[in-house]
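re: that chain from earlier
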Amino acid sequence: MKVCVGLSGGVDSSVAALLLKAQGYDVFGMFMQNWHDTEGTLHGDCEWEEDKFVAELVARKIGIPFYFVDLSGEYRQRVVDYMFDEYSRGRTPNPDVLCNREIKFDAFLQKALALGADMVATGHYCRKEQAPDGSWKLLEGIDPGKDQSYFLCQLSQEQLSRALFPIGGMLKSEVRTLAVEAELPSADKKDSQGICFVGKVDLPVFLQQKLRSVEGDVVEVYDAWYSSSEKYRKDNSILSACTDPSCLSDEDLEELATPLDYSSLVFQTETYRSGKHHIKKTRYKDNPLGKIIGRHEGAQFYTLGQRKGLSIGGHAKPLFVLATDIEANRVYVGEGEDHKGLWRRVLRIAPDEIHWMRPSLSLPEGGALKCRVRIRYRQELQEAVLLMREAGLYVVFDQAQRSITPGQFAAFYAPYDESDPYDAPELLGSGVIEQ
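^ sequence. v structure.
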């Protein structure tokens, strides 16, 4: 069998190629360049050239053919343009998930097949198994600190059928040891960070390539606002009365999945005279529910739960972004990680955004499923119930979650035996968080 390994210049893909070659596969490596621009990036102009150089050295060391492919056009159109569009709408996308679905296991896969490959292998920490019905299951990787199944939560059965994950049953430390023993040029290379194939970026600067910077108010929401909010009280009343999420009505689910709206928090002005010349000035009247505490450069540059980048002092605890209002160009913040505005228990995925890894597992309308869910990479799996309704798939968590963020992916997994560290749960499906 002929296998194309996506060599990135990193240690994980290098060891994946090494293992496949040792197992007797007909292996060749291919490096993909997906990004040329450097505006907003925090690394050198030629980092991709260094990665390509290391990847080529690895291929030479292992003794496999090496190819190069430029997929920057596809990447910009199918990943980066999507990013800009989502941020412009006040949502926070996950480009790494899109990169795997649209580039690595689509555009790159097609190039590999054209070169005669039967399968494509990557250095992802995850595993796949064949189910009794012949479909493919995607499982978490063995290393709990490196599992990357979340990033593959949008793959189709066709894509999985062509995928190999040689290091999914290994710990990162074991991968490093193998690389050192084999004297691979990538053995000591640090793991990549930031946006897939773009790298670490100054996000506002990066987004300003297409999104205009416009100053607006930063509004701090006080705890007293929640006591005055009818919706906040109603949500808590519904949840307090609910012992079984399956009994929630469609109206209750939609109510709970709808984020709090802070637009009712308004500030009136008053005029006053200042100084010995009694110069007339304008100021905001005190409001017991909140306060305008600063300015920002564009609400679309901020994401829910964000702590850094606000540049506003004078608080005993850190400030966190609670919400953004793109139309009013406002950013709402709260003090402390226990702030009431950060926590919610219910989210919704629109019907056309629901993706099942194995279609046979899909929930019928009215169905319920107890499972575990994560709403961001490296988050511990959280106990939840999936409820399929006409308006979409609702996820009701057992415990409130911090910063449920529209645009991100919610990935749901089957339960597993905690007493067996090698019994990794199956990734059942995923979807873009609508609200």
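The chain has three domains: 2-123+166-207, 216-338, 343-433.
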